[in-house]
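TICKET: design request
STATUS: open
ATTACHED STRUCTURE:
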């Protein structure tokens, strides 16, 4: 296989054993060449600029600097390398920021080696690669209404209008012929929809968005 057809890699992970394992795995397989390693996000950014790899295998949580920050910086610099996240974490707080920062793909470290090889080849070609668990999370995130964008119900609008007048929960319940507990439930729901935590903020946001007045 010619040098031109090799996919070059940079491995960024704070665990030496993981880096050694990945290097050995890729160097024993045809079609790959590991150019270097880094133990933190900032070091990964510097090494990527120095080595210009095709693909960066990026861990996310590293004491010396996070992978998400490194991905964001590589994207800002317009780096040629495609970033394939390889981590043990698949929570929303990890996956979504990494993808938003510019990662081409996201795999978990328990992925079979053949799946990892395929993912690296796909990433090198600019194709998105996601583990099934991560793909499911992204679909749920896309389908879920963003905080503050879900419309208020007619009853929630009535409650909010009375809150804007300074009406206490007990008086709101009396005026709308509902229980005080129901008023509190409506308030909880409209707070969530508006992305706020209290009555004053709800009123302010409602006026700002034209919901009130």
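STATUS: resolved
RESOLUTION: sequence designed for all positions
ATTACHED SEQUENCE:
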């Amino acid at each position: 296989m010619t040098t031109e057809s090799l996919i070059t890699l940079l491995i960024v992970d704070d665990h030496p054993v993981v880096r050694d394992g990945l290097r050995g795995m890729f160097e024993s397989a045809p079609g790959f060449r590991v150019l270097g390693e880094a133990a933190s996000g900032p070091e990964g950014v510097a090494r990527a600029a120095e080595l210009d790899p095709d693909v960066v295998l990026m861990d996310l949580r590293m004491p010396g600097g996070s992978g998400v920050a490194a991905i964001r910086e590589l994207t800002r610099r317009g780096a040629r390398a495609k970033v394939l996240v390889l981590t043990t974490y698949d929570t929303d707080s990890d996956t979504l920021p990494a993808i938003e920062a510019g990662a081409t793909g996201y795999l978990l470290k328990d992925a079979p080696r053949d799946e990892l090889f395929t993912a690296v080849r796909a990433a090198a070609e600019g194709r998105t690669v996601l583990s099934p668990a991560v793909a499911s999370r992204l679909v749920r995130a896309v389908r879920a209404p963003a905080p503050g964008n879900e419309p208020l119900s007619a009853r929630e609008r009535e409650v909010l209008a009375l809150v804007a007048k300074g009406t206490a929960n007990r008086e709101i319940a009396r005026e709308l012929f509902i229980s005080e507990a129901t008023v509190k439930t409506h308030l909880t729901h409209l707070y969530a929809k508006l992305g706020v935590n209290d009555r004053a903020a709800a009123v302010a946001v409602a006026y700002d968005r034209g919901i009130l007045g």
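CLOSING REMARK: Residues 145 and 193 are 9 Å apart (CA to CA). The radius of gyration is 25 Å.
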